[in-house]
Amino acid sequence: MRKYIFILFTLSFTVATYAQSEARFQKIDSLLSYLTANDKFMGSVSIRVKDKVVFDGAYGYANVATNTKADTETKYKIGSITKMFTSAIIFQLIEDKKLKMDTKLSEFFPDIKNAENITIKNLLNHTSGIFNYTNDESFLAYMEAAQTREAMAKRIADFGSSFTTNEKADYSNSNYILLGYIIEDVTKKTYKDVVAQRIVKKLKLKNTYYYGKINPNKNEAYSYDFNGNTWEQRGEWHESVAFAAGALQSTPNDLTQFIRALFEGDIIKESSLEEMKKMDFGYGKGIFIFPFGERRFYGHTGGIEGFSSTLGYYPKDELSVAMTINGENYDSNQILIGILSIYYKIPYAFPNLKTATVDPEILKSYEGTYASPTIPLKITIQYNGSQLTAQATGQGAFPLNPLSNTEFNFDPAGIVITFRENGFVIKQGGTTNNFTKE
């Protein structure tokens, strides 16, 4: 499950409901409809204030092949937001005196390196040092196939340690796979059943459960990548591979209900929540702090297949927000920043999604490595068969959207590149720099 840092095709169908007819909710709907109409977004968003849903909207398609439109009951895989459920259950078991924060991993998995020094707390806050199994190249070979507990546990044990326990924190899905197995050992029930009994039924969540093969007849969404022209369906991870680290699916409405209940003491005690919220090296125990201006949201993000999701709660305003995406062609952080900016009535301009059609030969002519006398980084421009991408030294590549034959932008970062003979001018944040092709 991917880890996200929250900084905070055709005209597609939209379903949105919101409290009264407040202009800010209409503007949020307009933003999401605008992104959807420009093939930048497919998914759902829910905003809850206290126990009242004030915005609940669905955009795009649950199934592109059959033109099945998403609605507010469409289920999306939520990836690592699953970890919040897993952590809450661990705290319930601690409250039931069936586990302790300092219970050793060696009681359950003695074959894992340093298991005698790794505690439940270390697994919860990613300070265990256990290697993240999804980072290994072999992961791609088995992610779609059923895995036994024995195979997964052996795989994790064979990886060894990435660092000494408590030395630092580093995000590892392996920690939560192991926590899921521990939950099963302690309760003598499957993780799937424990989540259903201890959280879903308790809160009367209607659309949250352990996923299996996607069933469109149950209003479960497929996930997609945009190839420059159409949405392409992604392959599916087997649920046993994601397990307690990422194998739940839900709706934004259910997710906002869940996190509201978590902070209201309906799932774990206040003392447990306070422990869950304590940060070590930037990590809580199944929870993160997400900044949005001076506000601090608690929650988690998730990514699996082509799905991405965000869940956050701002205690001061008793505000819950959840966004689930099954078609992402724009920075999800920027989408959420737009939603929250509009909600809090902060000045916000819709992104520039203008696109021009440029001959592939012209795009190919811009390929190369460019350098500037004023910036130490070099920028590599490549054509991937559908669009140009730019990549600065040591950074990830980002797509360039054509505004004309010579002008391109990457709106999420406010970047505009204008090509000229043997070079380009790049503008960002009020600065201008000239680059020359090497």
The rounded Rg comes to: 23 Å
Head-to-tail CA distance between termini: 38 Å
Total domain units? 2
CATH architecture group name of the largest domain: 3-Layer(aba) Sandwich
Overall form: globular
| CATH-derived topology of the largest domain | Beta-lactamase
What does this structure look like?
- This is Beta-lactamase family protein.
- Residues 1-19 form the signal peptide.
- By secondary structure, this protein is α+β, with helices and mostly antiparallel strands.
- The chain folds into two domains: 1-351, DD-peptidase/beta-lactamase superfamily (Beta-lactamase, 3-Layer(aba) Sandwich), CATH 3.40.710; 360-437, Lipocalin.
- Helices cover 28% and strands 26% of the residues.
- The chain has helices spanning 23-37, 82-95, 120-124, 139-142, 149-159, 173-187, 191-203, 239-246, 252-263, 270-277, 332-343, 360-365, and strands at residues 14-18, 41-49, 52-59, 61-63, 68-69, 76-77, 209-210, 224-226, 231-233, 248-250, 288-292, 295-304, 307-314, 319-328, 368-371, 379-383, 388-392, 398-402, 407-410, 415-420, 423-428, 431-437.
- An eight-stranded antiparallel beta barrel has the order 15-16-17-18-19-20-21-22.
- α5 crosses α6.
- The longest helix has 15 residues, at 23-37.
- It starts with 13 loop residues before the first strand and ends with a strand.
- Mean pLDDT is 93; it is low at 3-13.
